[in-house]
Amino acid sequence: MQQASPYLKSLTLDGEKFSYYALDSLANTHDIKRLPFAAKILLENLLRHSQESFVQDEDIQKLANWDINDSDSTEIAFVPSRVVLQDFTGVPAVVDLAAMRDAMVDLGGDPQKINPLKPVELVIDHSVMVDYFAQSDAFDKNTAKEVERNKERYQFLRWGQKAFNNFKVVPPGKGIVHQVNLEYLARVTFIEEQEDQTLLYPDTLVGTDSHTTMINGLGVLGWGVGGIEAEAAMLGQPVTMLIPEVVGMEITGALPPGTTATDLVLTITQKLREFGVVGKFVEFYGEGIKQLTIADRATIANMAPEYGATCGIFPLDEQTETYLRLTGREERNIKLIKAYAQAQGMWGSEAQNSAIYHANLHIDLAEVVTSIAGPKRPQDRIPLTEAASQFSAWLSEQEKLILSTDDPEKGRFESEGGHQAEKSENSAQVEYNGQRFSLNDGAVVIAAITSCTNTSNPSVLIAAGLLAKKASELGLSVKPWVKTSFAPGSQVVTEYLNKANLTHELENLGFHLVGYGCTTCIGNSGPLPEPISAAIRKEKLNVTSVLSGNRNFEGRIHSDVKANYLASPPLVIAYALAGNMQIDLLKEPLGTSHEGKPIYLRDIWPTNDEIQTLVTEVVNSEMFSERYSHIFEGDETWNNLDVVDSEQYNWPESTYVKKPTFFDGIQQQPEAISAIENARCLLKLGDSVTTDHISPAGSIAPDGPAAQYLQAHGVDEHDFNSFGSRRGNHEIMMRGTFANVRLKNQLAPGTEGGWTRFQPSKEQMSVFDAAMQYQEQGTPTVVIAGKEYGTGSSRDWAAKGPLLLGVKAVIAESYERIHRSNLIGMGILPLQFNPGDSAASLKLDGTEQYSISAVDSGQKEVTVSVKGEQNEFSFVAKIRIDTPNEFSYFSDGGILQYVLRSLNKDV
């Protein structure tokens, strides 16, 4: 079949012959050079699958034509080469596959039809919590605690590894999925041995984590999807998408001394957010990228969800070649990657010179300044020169800033504009760890070097180590109220820090290794010391965290911490030394030396030459080869886990893994789409409601519905673990949906958290209790929201949870791409207010009843009828089911039901 394709060509390297689907086979009719790098990858994907039913010739012609002025959106199919999972989102994905095997048996089919058809790799990296810190055995203790807490999940994953084909698991304690992907899993070019040929094609992927985009730094196209969409991709379903808009960002110049890749990425994030790239591809090119290492590029690519893009991709070039060699890839493969990319016109940023972009942006690296971002959004960049003054402004907004000018004991500082403001002295006396101190507003209570964003980058980690070394030598120490932690993304990090003799220097300041995985950045920061937590709550202190991560949304890092700031690893240490966000790091001392002299940030900040010299000396390919040679091997505890040997899971009693109800009573033919009649509003929400607000994440509150469920099943509070670790149990997850401590439901004014008012009685109760009462009455529910509904991580439970709560539709002003897709994937109807309309303009207060007609394929709008206590009216809303494939999923009740029925038909 493939030999007959008009697009197939061959290339020879070192006497070996290889086949590939050539873009220049279209050169007679299309100017392929016009296509951006990412669009070329999509076009190759269409050519390679041109004989499949989901690819039409007009799709190929439309993409190859690349007319950026053509507003006629065309849907295309994208078949990723592989799928990556992390365990928070991966466990429920495997749970669904296990449940689908049971459902296939119920339909009279073969359970072995439920098997990944593409390589699937799951990295256990989201389950370690920072219970122990600032001690030499913190890693061992946290790892032991992790396995103890998650034994049932890990048993289930080991069963999945044995039961499913094409499924590998990286055991806990090995690294963060995105860094493992970058350093080891990425193929860059697939070399697939077939019966009659060896086929070359681009490495592409989707992953169940929004930061899957980190791999774009290596020139590999991939992005985050919801778990349900990833499951469909595993089972052979293409990802359907509209031909994307591609924004080109030209990079020129060089970074100034003293700035880091973190400063650059925060600047890029701010610029792209301001421009508006939601749902678009971003492609970086220009002379400046030649100076950016793959680690720098990966830092930028990682943050694509924060600037709102589907992906942020860099070209393949000499930096790619250098990195692949550094990380121990096979020399034959490296040469093939380059030869293939050159044959396809995909090698080097020069190949992008003829590319036509939908928009062109520019950034001069020389204009980048040292920055942080916060207090609650990654795109809110703050130059370090303004950090203290902007924090004081934020404190003022919290009505916690003491404005009296008569108290001479209150400190002052000057902002850039010369305006004088008071430093808040709202404080509490604390005794902890043998010390007595004042805990003030602005206190940095968490300082974490964490997350995939920065820990792929030796330059910023070496910089942090050098800064720690200089600080210790001068006699500086971290303030006693700061919870310090170091959670690198790869074991290789430990190797080169040891070789550089910097591990001990970090430990001197309390930055001991706490685990290899996502910790503080995803809410696994662990508990604060009880005396500090008690003081914060008693005095209602506005304390802060500083972390080298990518997310700082409200309620995400720690429930006691309202203001959270992203910063480079060396700045994290600097703030831990200063101890308070009200201190101007550029003007005020971090502390005093052994001799009592004030020590400033400039005194301990390493030079670029110091950093780069040490990086060159200590980072080598042997480290990568050695560490990754055992990547799929677990320790004795992992290998001795009891695992059932069967093609169907036996679903033992567990509060971690439970058979979901999504497929209960499934029939071969789906029910017809019905109207939504007299629905009640479960929540009425404002703008920028994130999936962190919707989906259960972080710690489980001791007084909520999820805690009540656990206690009823004999689980003590100290064993609650996190919502993320319990994503495989739908009973817990639905009880934690819409329960974020910072969620503001306008139906329950004056409250924060998972509260609503039951209609029509207006009785206040938890969202879960109200949802259950509505379901008992047979009353459907809707959610009303503002702009950017569902921004943030690609959380499938942000769609699964509402479905289980009985939500039939969401009506919002705009959606984040992944979340809208996930709603459809769970059979929830996404509607969008027409321009100019909103809940406010239509005077919807959420107490009304809402009726929505049954929607049909191709229908773009629907009438929503509203019945209030005093009046009745209607408005027209957009139906945000954007493609025919999406409608197929929706009409089947969800994407998994669609796949299940399709596979059962395929005899």
Automatic annotation (TrEMBL):
Cross-referenced Pfam families: Aconitase, Aconitase_C
Residues covered by the Aconitase A/isopropylmalate dehydratase small subunit swivel domain: 707-834
Region (Disordered): 405-428
Catalytic activity: citrate = D-threo-isocitrate
InterPro entries to which the protein is assigned, alphabetical: AcnA_IRP_Swivel, Acnase/IPM_dHydase_lsu_aba_1/3, Acoase/IPM_deHydtase_lsu_aba, Aconitase/3IPM_dehydase_swvl, Aconitase/IRP2, Aconitase_4Fe-4S_BS, Aconitase_4Fe-4S_dom, AconitaseA/IPMdHydase_ssu_swvl
Signal peptide: none
GO terms assigned for molecular function: 4 iron, 4 sulfur cluster binding; aconitate hydratase activity; metal ion binding; RNA binding
Entry keyword set: 4Fe-4S, Iron, Iron-sulfur, Lyase, Metal-binding, RNA-binding, Tricarboxylic acid cycle
Cofactor: [4Fe-4S] cluster
Regions of compositional bias (Basic and acidic residues) in chain numbering: 407-425
Functional pathway: Carbohydrate metabolism; tricarboxylic acid cycle; isocitrate from oxaloacetate: step 2/2
Coiled coil residues, start to end: none
Cytoplasm is among the record's keywords: no
Top-level taxon of origin: Bacteria
Gene3D superfamilies on file: 6.10.190.10, Aconitase, domain 3 (3.30.499.10), Aconitase, domain 4 (3.20.19.10)
EC nos: 4.2.1.3
GO biological process: tricarboxylic acid cycle
Lyase among keywords: yes
UniProt function note: Catalyzes the isomerization of citrate to isocitrate via cis-aconitate.
Family per record: Belongs to the aconitase/IPM isomerase family.
Stated name of the protein: Aconitate hydratase
Source organism: Paraglaciecola polaris LMG 21857
Lineage of source species: Bacteria, Pseudomonadati, Pseudomonadota, Gammaproteobacteria, Alteromonadales
Gene designation per UniProt: acn
